[in-house]
Design goal:
6 helices, two-stranded antiparallel sheet, 5 strands, three-stranded antiparallel beta sheet, globular, 21% strand, alpha+beta
């Protein structure tokens, strides 16, 4: 589900932070039209519930999609090493935010040379 533009937005946001841990608004990374598109795809293809391990009784809404993104962010790797030590989705009154605890190596690359990251594997 992650796209090149989402990962690029993430790298830019982390590059603007002064700490390894940061909170970033979900909509700053993933635009709402993409969330709506994914909701339509999931609703029209019940097999996605199985693939993404979503219990069938769960009411499919934007929050579920944002949780899936949190799982995918946590799986990101650079040169075989995890990019994040921790990723949490935080639901707040003002909306949804992600809490990212970056690995030292990924944080350093986002600050010093983000162009060095090979994003060619993303669509």
């Amino acid at each position: 589900m992650l796209t090149k533009s989402i990962v690029y937005n993430l790298i830019q946001r982390i590059g603007s932070q002064r700490r390894h841990a940061s909170k970033i608004e979900a909509e700053a990374l993933v635009e709402m039209p993409y969330i709506k598109y994914l909701l339509d795809v999931f609703r029209s293809n019940p097999e996605f519930f199985t693939v993404f391990k979503i219990p069938p009784e769960v009411c499919l809404d934007a929050e579920v999609i944002y949780r899936l993104f949190a799982d995918q962010f946590l799986m990101l790797r650079m040169d075989g090493d995890k990019c994040f030590e921790q990723v949490k989705m935080l639901k707040q009154d003002a909306g949804i935010r992600y809490f990212f605890q970056c690995s030292a190596n990924f944080y350093q690359v986002c600050h010093s040379n983000p162009e060095a990251l090979d994003l060619s594997s993303f669509a």
